[in-house]
């Protein structure tokens, strides 16, 4: 009886503090009504705890939630519950006891038994498989049958290597079921935001390949899985039969989130460029994150979780500080970064204050951390989107700048091309002027009697000079083709005369190499045609030049035939065939590219600039024709040129004095005086020597002004006028000359270095009679003077005849 009395004395104070509730109660927080006993050694059993000797060790808990932090102690919770229904006839009513902290390792529920002691009603925790739970929920949920009108004491034993928290709530079954959709919807929204942001940024990363998005995706994945693990959804849905990973996942995912979050901040904020010391600090944080991940897999759960907690706190502060520093330094995207981490911090602080008991345990405070993290992820996605806009603006600015620079470069290139064309034109003119003296002097040497050795030297020098002049002409032609200065002329010419000239020009070269040069001209073709004979002959000349160059034995054939039926036009087909080395036909038309040779090495056997076929192709295109080729290595090549020529409608003769081609001379050269107007002393000397060889009387003038003075003072039968002169050029001199008395019909023969640039038309427009291209050739000069001077009727004789 004494023992029973003592036990009742100990029990009565506890029973006096029992929590009363009735059938109208839906939710009852128990944090401030429970008693807590901290078993620091952790060896007390339920018999020891329930004994009267330890009842005095229980302390009343006055906070809403038990928060013992990281403690190695075992905590016993004592709850005294009394269900007092208003309807005394009511039967027993089931209740749910919820402990809403899934990361607890071990949890044991003890209920009274029939013998006056306590029995183990439920053992669970995340250190056990999910199947150990009485009710399959992410939080720990126990069903209690409380008899009406009676106080019942229950014990909970809590043990965990992590944080010790025990938010206890008593629910009525109906209220708990009604509460679940609200909680599930909020968690669904939070996880949905994380998943949507992950997929959204994954697609952006696949589109733009910006590594910032990849780090952000990995951060979202790590942080989202951490939330799943902490909320108990991981062990419920993903790893229900793997308690080890259920514990290890939390510190591992915290380390992973810190690792990828720091790398994302480095990439997003460009800390290596703007804040090197912050960048180094983030690198240290990344190393700590990797260390925590390794500890989670190898060390004890308690050590890894403590390290992960410290890392999470330091990570939050460092990331926030990095964002603030970037914002202070004017980075536009840093503001969204700060807003995102501010939402995360506010949510974390709110949840922590609730856990510590400074804020009530409401739905908003309970899930503040998850809500803040969802806002953080969304705002960071906005930051990345703003970064895309900033990148677009920067790209637009760069493109505009590049466009301006490209436009300036194009203008500079156009100016350079123009200057290059002008330079080449000037160079060719300047080269033609001294070459005129060289070639003229060599031709004058032919009129002298030379010994065999000197004659051989003269021939060698003359051949080399002609080759050099040919290259100068090629460069000039290419320059004018590129500049668009050439255009086709339409004037009558003799078809047979054209090909006789080609035979006379190329047959000796072929004969020197031991080749047979054959010209096959269809006799049925008309002789007089209209077109640009000069450009046509120049095009064919390039083909003949190549044929002779690349043929060592055999023949070179020039074949001319009708390219179709004769109508208003004359379709002409010209073929150049050879038995030379041939070539493999290159792809893409590179055969006709300028400065491109099939053998471009320095040791190639055949010389040349590699522009002959390019000029030929452009000249043929200018004439409206087509050029085709066929070749077989070792067997020869064939080039086929088709061009449309016109049949002359009528013979058009210019008014005034006309050239008498092939007429009988009416005067002798020694009866005629020719005035040479040339500023270059060498060219003047050469031309004078040619005229003296021909028997003419010669007068010289250094410029146009001197020439006009001489024309006023003495009779002159013809003028050889250089077009490019200082003081007064040839065109101005000719216009002034025509205004002098008796000079309206005077033969004025222009000498120009630009034989391809339309100087003939300019000469005729300025009133000149005809023109010669430099270098002046002895035979051409003789022929021109014969037709314009010797075959013309003298002015005084014409007067007597009338």
Automatic annotation (TrEMBL):
Organism field: Aquipseudomonas guryensis
Gene3D superfamilies per UniProt: 1.10.287.130, 2.60.40.2380, 3.40.50.2300, Histidine kinase-like ATPase, C-terminal domain
Keywords assigned: Coiled coil, Membrane, Phosphoprotein, Signal, Transmembrane, Transmembrane helix, Two-component regulatory system
Iron-sulfur as UniProt keyword: no
Residues covered by the Response regulatory domain: 673-789
TM annotation in the entry: 184-206, 213-229, 249-269, 281-301, 307-327, 336-359
Histidine kinase domain sequence ranges: 426-647
SUPFAM superfamilies, sorted: ATPase domain of HSP90 chaperone/DNA topoisomerase II/histidine kinase, CheY-like, Homodimeric domain of signal transducing histidine kinase
Protein name: histidine kinase
Catalytic reaction(s) noted: ATP + protein L-histidine = ADP + protein N-phospho-L-histidine
Coiled-coil regions listed: 392-426
């Amino acid at each position: 009886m004494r023992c029973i009395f003592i036990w009742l004395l100990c029990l009565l104070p506890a029973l006096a503090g029992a929590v009363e509730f009735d059938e109208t109660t839906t939710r009852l927080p128990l944090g401030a009504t429970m008693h807590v006993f901290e078993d620091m050694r952790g060896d007390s059993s339920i018999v020891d705890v329930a004994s009267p000797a330890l009842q005095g060790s229980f302390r009343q808990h006055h906070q809403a939630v038990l928060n013992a932090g990281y403690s190695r102690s075992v905590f016993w919770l004592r709850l005294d519950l009394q269900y007092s229904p208003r309807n005394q006839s009511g039967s027993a009513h089931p209740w749910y006891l919820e402990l809403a902290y899934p990361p607890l390792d071990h949890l044991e529920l003890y209920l009274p038994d029939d013998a006056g002691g306590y029995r183990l009603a439920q053992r669970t925790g995340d250190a056990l498989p999910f199947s150990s739970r009485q009710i399959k929920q992410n939080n720990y949920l126990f069903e209690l049958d409380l008899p009406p009108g009676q106080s019942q004491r229950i014990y909970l034993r809590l043990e965990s290597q992590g944080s010790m928290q025990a938010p206890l709530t008593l629910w009525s079954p109906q209220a708990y079921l009604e509460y679940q959709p609200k909680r599930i919807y909020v968690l669904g929204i939070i996880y949905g935001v994380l998943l949507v942001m992950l997929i959204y940024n994954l697609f952006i990363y696949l589109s733009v390949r910006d590594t910032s998005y990849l780090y952000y995706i990995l951060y979202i994945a790590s942080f989202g899985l951490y939330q799943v693990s902490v909320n108990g959804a991981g062990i419920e849905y993903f790893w229900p039969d793997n308690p080890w990973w259920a514990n290890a996942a939390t510190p591992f995912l915290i380390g992973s989130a810190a690792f990828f979050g720091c790398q994302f901040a480095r990439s997003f904020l460009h800390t290596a460029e703007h804040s090197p010391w912050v960048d180094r600090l983030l690198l240290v944080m990344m190393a700590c994150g990797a260390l925590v991940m390794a500890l989670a897999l190898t060390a004890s759960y308690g050590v890894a979780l403590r390290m992960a907690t410290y890392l999470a706190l330091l990570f939050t502060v460092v990331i926030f500080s990095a964002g603030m520093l970037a914002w202070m330094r004017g980075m536009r995207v840093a503001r969204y970064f700060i807003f995102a981490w501010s939402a995360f911090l506010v949510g974390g602080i709110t949840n922590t204050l609730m856990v510590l008991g400074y804020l009530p345990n409401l739905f908003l405070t309970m899930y503040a951390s998850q809500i803040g993290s969802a806002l953080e992820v969304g705002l960071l996605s906005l930051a990345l989107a703003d970064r895309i806009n900033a990148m677009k603006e920067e790209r637009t600015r760069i493109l505009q700048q590049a466009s301006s620079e490209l436009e300036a470069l194009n203008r500079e290139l156009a100016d350079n091309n123009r200057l290059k064309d002008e330079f080449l034109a000037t160079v060719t003119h300047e080269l033609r002027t001294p070459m005129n003296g060289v070639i003229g002097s060599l031709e004058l040497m032919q009129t002298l009697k030379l010994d065999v050795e000197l004659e051989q030297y003269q021939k060698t020098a003359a051949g080399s000079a002609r080759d050099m002049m040919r290259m100068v002409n090629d460069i000039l032609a290419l320059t004018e083709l590129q500049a668009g200065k050439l255009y086709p002329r339409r004037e009558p010419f003799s078809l047979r005369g054209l090909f006789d000239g080609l035979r006379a020009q190329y047959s000796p070269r072929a004969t020197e190499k031991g080749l047979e040069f054959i010209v096959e001209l269809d006799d049925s073709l008309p002789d007089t045609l209209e077109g640009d004979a000069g450009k046509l002959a120049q095009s064919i000349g390039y083909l003949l030049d190549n044929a002779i160059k690349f043929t060592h034995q055999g023949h070179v054939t020039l074949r001319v035939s009708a390219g179709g039926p004769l109508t208003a036009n004359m379709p002409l087909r010209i073929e150049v065939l050879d038995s030379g080395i041939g070539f493999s036909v290159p792809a893409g038309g590179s055969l006709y590219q300028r400065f491109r040779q099939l053998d471009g090495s320095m040791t190639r056997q055949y010389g040349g600039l590699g522009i002959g076929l390019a000029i030929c192709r452009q000249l043929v295109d200018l004439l409206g024709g087509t050029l085709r080729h066929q070749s077989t290595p070792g067997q020869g090549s064939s080039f086929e040129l088709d061009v449309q020529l016109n049949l002359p409608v009528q013979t058009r003769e210019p008014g005034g004095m006309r050239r008498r081609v092939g007429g009988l001379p009416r005067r002798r050269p020694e009866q005629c005086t020719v005035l040479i107007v040339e500023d270059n002393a060498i060219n003047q000397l050469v031309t004078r020597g040619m005229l003296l060889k021909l028997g003419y009387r010669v007068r010289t003038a250094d410029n146009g002004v001197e020439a006009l003075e001489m024309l006023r003072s003495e009779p002159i039968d013809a003028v050889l006028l250089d077009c490019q002169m200082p003081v007064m050029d040839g065109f101005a001199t000719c216009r002034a000359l025509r205004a002098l008395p008796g000079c309206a019909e005077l033969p004025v023969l222009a000498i120009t270095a630009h034989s391809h640039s339309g100087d003939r038309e300019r000469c005729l427009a300025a009133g000149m009679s005809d023109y010669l291209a430099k270098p002046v050739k002895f035979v051409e000069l003789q022929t021109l003077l014969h037709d314009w001077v010797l075959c013309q009727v003298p002015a005084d004789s014409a007067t007597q005849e009338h």
